[in-house]
């Protein structure tokens, strides 16, 4: 295992139209519980841990988990919607050993706020980028491509590019699971024309853009090695999934609280899943997209001291 998504909970302070985390019951598990799950995960010696949710910043003791992971030499990042990412939280995360923040920004101003159903959220994200600059902390940006924000894509790119601290990378993720949110045929055609030019434009500012030229091309499952080096662990339960894209699509392959972590990672179900993914025969992989697969390879590269070989 090289890359772990550590999902704390579904607790969230936004009401995004593409996500149902905000509808899930709130949980209030203890720091001790999360430490135990994280300790099991760290026994597998991952190179990178990404804390995610929900909104992980809602867990007041997150910096202590960051510190626990960083103490093992792990590259730690935190994914946030930016709503409560102020200077104090950034400093606490840095002091704990966080090396990267990830902000979710889907469109400009009122469109982003409508997508996330959170007034003022876009401005909070821009303020957070300024705070990250002052703290000298790297960040990346996730953008979910959907109809409401599609026409802002070029302008959003220019806004990010114009920052004194442009993002290290920018991941464009096609919306999944709700056809009502998909961009129109006209919008998708514009994306296909725009994305190659935008990729070059962002590269000139030092931002690596991770996006398929045709984000909404439905090619079906394709051979994939991501589950050979990636997993998603639910912090609430200890369940381990093949990757971040299979959390809600396939059953868990093991549990790091009920089994030894290495046994969970090497279970028969885990090996079977990896074999199906490697041959492009895992039907649940149809919900994935080339850019999300590519992003995991980028994250693997960022966490590796040298360019990684294929994981076994």
TrEMBL record:
Q: Which superkingdom does the taxonomy of this entry point to?
A: Bacteria
**Per its UniProt record, what PROSITE patterns does this chain match?**
RADICAL_SAM
Does the record's keyword annotation contain Transferase? no
Entry-linked PANTHER family: PQQA PEPTIDE CYCLASE, RADICAL SAM DOMAIN PROTEIN
- Read off the Gene3D superfamilies from this record: Aldolase class I (3.20.20.70)
Ranges for domain Radical SAM core:
1-208
What GO molecular functions are on record for this protein?
catalytic activity; iron-sulfur cluster binding; metal ion binding
Keywords assigned: Iron, Iron-sulfur, Metal-binding, S-adenosyl-L-methionine
Q: Name one Pfam family in it.
A: Radical_SAM
Record flagged with keyword Repressor: no
Would you tell me the protein name for this molecule? Radical SAM core domain-containing protein
Q: By its UniProt entry, which InterPro entries does this protein fall under?
A: Aldolase_TIM, Radical_SAM_PqqE_MftC-like, rSAM, rSAM_sf
